[in-house]
Structure formats: C-alpha cells, structure tokens
Records
---
Amino acid sequence: MTPHQAVITEIARDVIEQIAQEELPMFSAVSRAYFADPRRALSGKGTRKAPLGFGSEAVELIATPVVLAATAKAVECLADTVLKHTTGDGTIAGLRRLFRLGQRSRDVSAADDAAENTAPQADVVALRPEDIERLRHVVEATLHDIGTTPENARLIADAIIGRCQAPRAAD
C-alpha cells in the first residue's frame, strides 16, 4: 500500500464509521478491491474472485468504494493546498496532520514523519474558507460523476470535510 493509499484508507474508514458502520467488517476487503481496480469497484461488475462481485442493485447499498473515491479526490485536492501552506514538510506528513491522522497508531505516524523528514508535532495546516469550498466542490463533483444522489454527496462531503476540521477522538 502506498503512503497516499494509507492516508486515503484511514480517512475513508473514519467516514464509513460515521455514515455506514455496518460496512466496517468488509471495509478492508472492499478497499483492497477498490485500489486494485477503482473503476471496477465503482461499477459493481465483479467476478467470483472479486470481493465486489455483487449485482448493480447491491452496489448502490455499499458506500465504501464511493467514499474511497471521494476521499482519494479530497486527498489529491488537499495535497496541493498542503504544499502551498507549508514549507519543508512532506506531503504525506502534512496531510496526516491536516486530517489529524495517526492518533490511533502513533508508530505509523512517527514512521511517516521520519520518512518525510518532518517534526512529528508540526503545526496543523489551517484551511481557509476558500480551501474548504474548493474541497467541497471537488468531492461533490466526484460523487456526482459516480452517480451519487445529491443528498448522499452532501453527507459524504460533510464527513470528509469534518475530518479536516475536528480533532480525532483517541481510541
């Protein structure tokens, strides 16, 4: 798993925990299938070997690949913002601080910070209102392109954006 995939997965897991807890038991399998072939995971067309080998009606009930796609776009969008607002920080470490990731697993955060040559307690990037509006637009456009209803798109966008603005509860 690449560092970006690890960040995307951690954020998406938190969003799924918030909006579709019933999907947590299958989150790992669905996320692996998503990263192996995002288009296929979102299409609902699978094979017996694929964890997403459900009919098209069932895919509408599965939020995980949709949340992963939206989160991937959010991370891509915010990576640019992190680079503009930080000096000398690695993108992954900056994103981890922005989304307040790593509190559950301090070893992972410390390893990421060490790999990125950053201080583990560096300041969190503060998003400006225009950054949040851009993020909302990118996430909702992605969800619209996937075919998510406007109501569900708002729910998912709110959950992703909320992860940038609220401290993460420690386990």
---
Amino acid sequence: MLIVGPELEKRFYRYSCASIKGRGTHYAAQAIRRATRDVRGTKYCLQLDFKSFYASIDRGILLKKLSRTFKDWRIVEAIRAVLYTYKGDGLPLGWYTSAHFANFYLTQIDRFVKEERYAKHYVRYMDDEVIYGANKRKLHAIRKDIDLRAAQIVLRVKQNWQVYKMPYVRGHPTGSHKERRRATDFVGFRFYRYKTTIRRAIFLRAARNLRAIAKGKYNIVRARRYMAYNGYIAHSDSASIRRNYIDGKIKISKLREEISREAKRFDAGGICAARI
C-alpha cells in the first residue's frame, strides 16, 4: 500500500472522501457547506447509495481496472493475492486495502457524474453520494444514468434514493413549512443553507452520554465518547448543546485526566490490562 495507495489517490475525484488522509467527515462537510452557498445551483438535491456495496464489488472487474493502472506484474500479483485471500463476497470490511480499492472502484461513476453530466456540486463519502442541481428533471436523469453505469460494474443503487428541494435561506420564507425544514442528511450532519446541525440519532447518543457524565459518571469509556461527539459539536452550530449539556455541568479537565491516565497505562505496560 505504500506504493499502491498514493498512485490510486492521484486518480481519485477531488471530493471522493472516506479513509483517505485529509479527506474524512469534516472534509466532506466543508464541501457541502461550500456547495450550499450557491443557492441557484443547489435548488434540488439527489442522494443515493449502493446496496451491499463492499460485498457487491466484483473482484475480477476490480483486478482488471487495477492491472490497467499498474504495469508491474509483481504489484498486480500481490494485489490478486490480497483480493482472493478473503473467502467471502466482494471486499472485506476493515482490511487496510479495502477502502482504497473501493474508492478506486467508483472512480468510473465519479468521472461520469462530473465529466459527462457536468454536475457542479457532487460529493461522495465512500458509496454515499450527494449531487446538487438547479433542475429536478436533470437530477432524475442523472440518477437513471448512474443506475446504468453501476450495473456495468455489478452494483445496484438502493431504492431509498431521493430527490428533494433544498430549504430556502433564512429570512426568505417562500414555500411551505416542510420545504423550509428540509436539509441534506450526510456524514452525521444535517446541512441547511444557514446552519449545520447534528444528525438526530448522534445528538441523542451524545446527550445521553453528557447527562451520565453530569451525574458524576467519569470513566475512560465516557471520556472517549465525549471526545468523539465533541468533534460533531465543534463543527456544527450547536451552541444550545453546549449551553444545555456541557457549560457548568461537566468538568472537561476530569475527562482529560481519564484519557491521560489511560495513555500512561499503555506507555508503561504496553496493552492495558483493562483491554485484555
């Protein structure tokens, strides 16, 4: 992967995100925020993903694509060995190679959307895709074409795809109440034109954890959860969450102490006894 990884990344679409250094959740979120500033160009949104994506990847097709990229037979044979070591269908979840290979597998779709359908605002987080446009019919046409392109590489678009109207800018109450409330639910956030909030399911888990900490339940598990959820809070318009659940209610210093204590355990004795 020290050889293969950088070469594959050169071929990735700019906003192909997930499991790529510097292109994580917040990179995708920033791309969506920039896109939604273009009010006319993001009047409608198409969202879709692929059914059983990792398990549906055809290793034969993937190997053929990779062999056209890498001309050294030793690299191709090494890739073949990795691909067919796994006895299940498609690519295994969690393997170091899988994310890069999966992203590379979808470059064909990326090029089609950008170079043939000229989508101005398009972001993909692994197999979750968001495409904005000014015309609803064009987005429906793009979705149908993606269906056809995906079939060529043995993928199927899930039936829960949707095309919807984006909310209006604050201060412009044109349209129904339902239209004004609609947002793009993507990478753990809900993107409105004038604000970004946390996905409801993530907020409920974060609030549950914060309430437990406020009751004095300070431990390493809750400290780690706080740090994880704080990433969502810090990168969204969540002043009310801080006001209602954090400020004056929990001691951040105690959570940091828990994490520092755990780190010292690892430094002193290798694998923590609690983990064994």
---
Amino acid sequence: MRATRALIHLNNLKSNIRGIRGFLQPGTKLCVAMKADAYGHGAARCAQAALEAGADFLSVATVEEGIELRNAGIHSPILLLSLCSPDETDSAVRYGISPFVFDSEYIGRFAESCRKIGTADFCVHLAVDTGMGRIGCRPEEAGKIARLIAGTGVLSLGGTATHFALSDSISQEAESYTRMQFERFQTAIAAIRAEGLSPGICHCSNSAAVLNNPEYQLDMVRPGIIAYGYYADEVSREYLEAKGCQIELKPVMTLESTVCSIRKCLKGQSISYGCTWTAGQDTYIGVIPAGYADGVFRRFASSGLSVAVNGKSCPVRGKICMDQMMIDLGPDCTAKRWDTAVIFGDSRSGALQTADDIARMTGTIPYEITCGISKRVPRVFITG
C-alpha cells in the first residue's frame, strides 16, 4: 500500500451519529450526507456504518453516487440533493434514488422515466427555495407543484424540503434570516395541505441547525459535516458549551504518510521550487511522499503547516510539490527513515491539527480539506 493514506475511523463516525441522535426529538428521522464520497471519507463503508449507528436516510449529490451505494448493498432510502441531467433520470428511477423536484419540466422527465420503466409510486421530494437561491419552487407555488406531482399518477410526494443559508452563523441577523426561512417553509407546507395533499416527511435542518435550533427539526434532519467530526462554523464547541449543550465530535479522517528520505541541509541551502526557504542553520530535511495532487495544497505551507513525526512538530519547508513535500526535522534529528508522519486528524492519532485547524489557517472550511484528499490516496477503514 502507498505510504500516504487516509485512515477512516468508523467508530468515530458511529460515535458522532449517536451523539447527533441525542440532540433529536423522539420520532425525528436522521438523513446523513454521503455526497462527495462521504466528504472524502469513502461513501460505501461510511454509509454502512452510518446505518448501523441509526441513520434512517442517506443523501447524495449525483445519481452515480447513489448507484455506488446501491451496488454496495445499501437498501435504505437515498435522497438526490442536486439536479441530474435528462439522461440520468432513468437510472435514478431504476435504482430508487429519490430526487428533489420543483418544476413541471423536471417532474415531467421523471414521470416519463417511470412510465417507460414501468415504475409506479416513485418517491420524490419537493424542494422549496426559502432564501438559499439555489433550487426549489417559491413557497407560494408549493401547493400547485405538489398537485402537479400527484397528477402524474406515477410519482408520489415522499417529502418536502428546504435548505438554510445562514444557520451556521450566530449573529442576530443570521438567526433572523434562518427564522424567516423556516416561516416561509411552514407557509409552503400549509399550501400543500390546503390542496388536500400530504407534504410527506418535512425537513430543513443541516448540521448547524441540528445543534443550534432544535425547534426546526420537524420530521427529519440532514446533518453533514458534524457526522465527520467537525462543528459547523460559528456553531462551535465553545459556543454550544456556553449554551449548556454538549456533544463530542471526533474527526473521522486521519491523513498520514511516512518520512521516505532524510537528508542533511546545510546553512544557506534552499529547498523546493522557487527557493522560497533557505536554511538559517544546519538541519535535517525529511521528504514526505504527499503533495498537492493528494490534496495537501501549496497554500498549506505558506499558512504554517507542520507535520507530526514521533510527537514532534516539523514545519513544512519550501513549496509543496505535486507529489512530495519537505519538512524540517531539526538539527538534533532523531527521526528515522520510514517513521510515520501525521498531517492532520484526531489528536489521539498523534496529529498536531485537525482538518478544521488547517481550514482556519487557510481561510476555508473543513469540508474542502477532507473532500480535497484525492482518489489516489487509499482509504484504510479502521473498525476498532
């Protein structure tokens, strides 16, 4: 196996999901996001672990992601959160992947696929745009669209959904905006019921709202990043503890590699492309076979990334290359060739930082860090 690998701690995933369950009201269903290969963690194995931990639904962004789960033996309901192309609707129907629909053209395509394949009562969810500005009908159109779904004779309205735009912010303005979205969603639900139709499973809460807004849970919640061990932006551990809410989230991914070479670097010698770093003293440089093609991006070095080798902090020196990066093992180097180098992960794995720490260093979010770990990095699933 390649030296650079992502360790996926499935017990941490299960622990996080059970912790989320503790925030839910009795009877509220749990839909865990598996899109983007489970945020880079490996969708098939993570899906199975999530279901074992109590998830009721799973969600994906593409039909292909849903098919991957079906081919892995996953039989739970799967929601398709993003739109698919016309030539994918047949596959969505065949594999029982429930799309978000909201206009006549899209609904018509799924109805046509159902008739062609011979499927009746195919479950769809009605998406309502309450303020995200991405997909969905206007709240006042929800009743009409629900009636259109029912009128196909082959589609059934299994649920009604919206998505919050600002729930991960704790400002008064953000909280007011989220409340406005929820109220608009309630208007949409009422419009569907006014048509004499059931809205099905109503759901709107993402990771931040799950932890910060229990009043918005409705019939189901859709957590993403918190399942993988990271708090949702400003809805942080410290913020929740101050509110008297406690949930211990454990990072599921640990990215590690090895020191594949150690070389003495003399004072005045430069390292890597552009010679952007020059040794101020004699030291030892270790080479790590991981680079930006693996998801360890160049900007990490300029933001002060260090790697843990035998518990010691070893800063990255020079520019990160496509396949390798160099770290400073210090003038009193005790590291040996093939020692483990931990780039990020749970502190219990020896990491100096989490994906969230790197995200804050580089002005992004932990989602981008874990999703950025490329396919050529093998995922090693740890069950113990």
---
Amino acid sequence: MEPVPDQLVDEVSAQYGAAHRAVHAVGIGLRGTFAPSPEAATLSSAAIFAGPVPVTGRFSNSVGFPVLPQLQPDDRHPDVRGFAVKFHLPGDDDPEGSMDMIAMTLDRFFDTVSDFQGFLRHVAPDPHTGIPDKNGLMAWARTHPLALEVILGYQKIQSMHDPSYAGLVFHGVHTFHYTAADGTDTAGRFRWEPDTPEPPVTSLPAGTPPDYLRRDITHRMRDGEGAGFTLWLDHPGPDDQLDRLSAPWTSKAADGTPIPPTRMGHVQLGALVADQYWDCEALAFNPTRLVEGVSVDPHDQIIAARRVAYDVGHTRRTAIRPRPSRLPN
C-alpha cells in the first residue's frame, strides 16, 4: 500500500525536523521573463509558449532545515540544488501563477514511491546516534538496484562544490507530454542549461561564507549581470522508458544516432523578489501545476505522489503563518 500524503511528508521531514518545507527550505526568489522559442509553439499549444511571460524563480538547496541552530543552512555543504520557475500568464491574478517547472541538479530520481520511502527511512537520523546509518543505507540499496543508481548519483553530487546557482544545469527528471494544436503528442524531459556554465569544483577558497551561493546570485541581480538559462526538451529513443526516472535517457534512435533536443525558450532573471516571504517562500511550487498543452505522464508514480505531498506541505506551512487577507500598502 502506498503511503498517504501526510505520512510521506512526515517521513521526508524526519530527516530535519523542519516545519517550513520538507525539503528545499533554504532558497532565494527572483523575478524574470521567459521568452519562448518558435519551435516551442510547434510542439505545444500551451500559453507559456505563445509569447514572453513574467516568471518568479527560486534557487534552493535540498536540505529541509531553514533556521535550526544546530543545523544552520550552509551553502558550503555539497548538495542537490533546485531551480523552480513559476509562470504568471496575463490575466492570472493568483500569486501561485499558472504553471510551475521544478528542476534539480540531480539528473535522476526514484522510480516508485516505495523506493523513495525506503531511502527516506535509511537516511533519517538514528534516534540513538543522531546520524544516518550509511552502512544500512548501502545494504538496502544493494537489494534495490534502481534505487542504488539514484544514490550513487546523489553521492557524486555530494563530492563536489558549486561555484554559483547561475552556472548549473537543472534537470526536470519527469516525462511530460507536450500537445500541439493539431493534437500531436510529444514526450519530453526538460532541462535548463546556463548561459555561463560553471562546473563543480573539488574545493572552495578559504574564507568562503556559509551563504556564498545566495550572496553570489544577489550580486548578479544587483549589478545587472542577472542569470540566464535556455530551456531544452530531450526526446526519448526506442530504448528509453518514459516512467523510468532512475535512468537518464540516451535520446538515441534505433540506429544509434542522437535525437536532437528541442530548444523551447530562454529565461532571464534580473531582480530579486522584493518580499522574499510573501512573494516567494509562502508560494507553493508544484510540478503538476500545468496549463493546457502540457501534461504529466500517467504512469509516473512519483509525480502523482509529489502533487498531493506538495499540497500537504503548503497547507501545513500556511497554517503556521497564513497569508493575510490583505497585504499592507
């Protein structure tokens, strides 16, 4: 039996004891504009591909503790970084926007909720020692080979440091279906490629501050440099499984030739969100908030679980600090 949404959120939160966000609690919000490519409109009738769209972006670290004294947020800890983009279509006055795209630096994820749940139980701190049992995790992973691929990818990320949010590649991981005006369906997985790539490094300079990633992106916004990313859509080959999140696609045809990705557009981020709480942290970024012309793959267990789990997390967060009926002038 699959866990109910509250149970799944509880198990994620058990790693950190946080009530703000179960994961990706440490983040920073930005404003920008998404400009679709001409090719995007041929694949999907979605309104976000019809013309420039204002967006709210949020860079984050995967940890779930925002302010615990014993576990202070520290960008110097190698981590899975996240990039969420919220599209605000014309006429939509809802601060939650019309559509969300959520991506991370890890290029794979667990295929089933049970595998994800098993992973969570093995990375939760031991009640006696206060630290996770790494040996127990790897023993479990060896009996779950698809989960092991995800864990090995995660460990690789943990071995390197990121110079800047603005220089990372972010993967959407899930398969989405893009439907054209004539009904043609195209399956794809999206990724954001930075305008100025900055590969991970093995070490950081001495004296690097604990919030160096947030400082860096703040400086880029304030000095006019900004941050830009191209949205690419990768397409599956005959051997690529749409619902296999643990294996990145080869995107190769039957004869072995590469299947070229489609350029879907470009996002340019140029300013910090003025009110980091109400205009970013209080918002819910949900990968299943979509517009007509884009849909989830019906066989994807994880994205179905994310939809309800994100709703639970947002309900808990706003119950602690609800949005006022009218914001002050």
